[in-house]
Design brief:
The chain contains 6 helices and no strands. It is mainly α. Helix 1 packs antiparallel against helix 2 and helix 1 runs antiparallel to helix 3.
Length: 174
């Protein structure tokens, strides 16, 4: 594919030949629509579009219920929910022996990429540290340098200061 750089006006300090991430592909049509931008053509693909935004989808509901079934040990019911989505998308149905929390998390990525806050899902399932360390393997920043204490966020000092009658301790590590 040839890119017509005349469609992308020059901006201060950025060279579109060397900076292949500026205004250029790949971008996800799920989120961006370069033909229906809100105000500034060069920012197309940066979220300023007229496309509808998902709030919740039926697939997300199925996957949330499947997660609950896995936690309850009802793997057959979890498999049924996961396969409802896989069959709809013409994917090979999952086998009962493969269903576990990791399979569910992989299915969430396949189905809901970019539509939910993955960070919250990984925290909720207790998989934040494991998955960040496993799948973020940039040798210059292995595992994104995530530390064990990152499973909790720091409590903003201004919020702790509002509690006059009780001493509120900062989360460990911060």
């Amino acid at each position: 594919m040839k890119i017509d750089f005349s469609l992308y006006p020059p901006s201060a300090g950025r060279d579109p030949i060397r900076d292949t991430c500026q205004y250029i592909y790949p971008f996800f049509m799920k989120f961006a629509d370069p033909c229906h931008i809100v105000d500034n053509a060069p920012t197309s693909g940066g979220g300023a579009v007229y496309k509808d935004v998902y709030v919740m989808r039926l697939a997300e509901t199925y996957l949330s219920r499947a997660e609950a079934y896995i936690a309850l040990g009802k793997i057959d019911l979890a498999a049924a929910d996961i396969n409802a989505i896989r069959i709809r998308s013409h994917a090979k149905p999952a086998e009962l022996k493969d269903i576990n929390i990791d399979y569910l998390l992989d299915e969430r990525v396949r189905e809901l990429y970019g539509e939910d806050c993955r960070h919250f899902v990984l925290r909720r399932t207790g998989k934040l540290l494991e998955r960040v360390r496993k799948y973020n393997n940039n040798p210059k920043n292995p595992g994104l340098n995530i530390q064990d204490y990152h499973v909790l966020w720091p409590i903003p000092q201004e919020q702790m200061d509002l509690n006059i009658g009780v001493k509120w301790e900062q989360n460990p590590g911060y």
